[in-house]
Design goal:
Pfam families: Mpv17_PMP22 (PF04117). This protein has about 230 residues and is mainly α. The protein is built from eight helices and no strands.
């Protein structure tokens, strides 16, 4: 197995450490705010703080990381049931959670940009947002997903190219089946600050599928060897 260069390993460690530290600081502040009030007031205070402009980015990243990891654990549970795995691979789950960092950051800024330049909730505005989301942002998200995971693997560039070549179309077709109806609700009814939360809630089932597609690599390689 090829070992990542020392400078690259240090960079990845520092990046993950900084992100996790920022998230930890955010949630420590949330828990501090919650200690001095009743349960209902706690929830309201936590909600207001978490979805405020100051902390919204960290909240969105936390949601994306958590649900990406949960989606992978659900997929691994299924693979254990079908005997495709012998035990849980928690390193794989951590990698899938790490991919949620990029997803959370991009979604956070994308929805802000959409709502800034396409104002209103008329049918025309919703359709414009939906088309831009599917035609522009969806391909970017798929490429980012494979790219963020490739950073943690051997031969990142070769791995990235192979994954995109073999699996991009599969995921993009699935995006068109899942997201248009879900995003109509998102764009028509929800304010900007709740879009990523809704997005990730709907995405939990989809994250199970992306984990399956991503980690089907060995089967694809075996098929290539057999065909040769």
């Amino acid at each position: 197995m090829e070992v990542l260069p020392a400078h690259k390993s240090i960079w990845l460690f520092c990046k993950k450490h900084y992100i996790m530290q920022a998230i930890a600081v955010t949630w420590r502040k949330l828990s501090t705010n919650a200690r001095s009030a009743s349960s209902i007031t706690n929830l309201k205070k936590i909600g207001r703080t978490a979805f405020s402009n100051k902390y919204l980015l960290y909240t969105n990243v936390t949601i994306s990381v958590s649900l990406s990891a949960v989606g992978d654990l659900l997929e691994q549970t299924y693979e254990l049931y079908t005997k495709d795995m012998e035990k849980y691979d928690f390193k794989r789950t951590m990698h899938m959670g790490f991919s949620g960092v990029a997803v959370g950051v991009l979604c956070h800024h994308w929805y802000k940009v959409l709502d800034r330049f396409i104002i209103g909730k008329t049918t025309d505005m919703v359709i414009k947002k939906l088309l831009l989301d599917q035609l522009i942002f969806s391909p970017i998200m798929i490429v980012t997903f494979f790219g963020s995971l490739a950073l943690l693997e051997d031969d990142p560039m070769d791995n990235f190219k192979e994954e995109v070549r073999q699996k991009f179309v599969t995921l993009y077709k699935a995006e068109w089946m899942v997201w248009p109806p879900a995003q109509i609700i998102n764009f028509y009814f929800l304010p900007t600050r709740f879009r990523v939360l809704y997005d990730n809630t709907i995405s939990l089932g989809y994250d199970v599928y992306t984990s399956q597609v991503k980690h089907n690599k060995n089967n694809l390689r075996n098929a290539d060897r057999i065909s040769v």
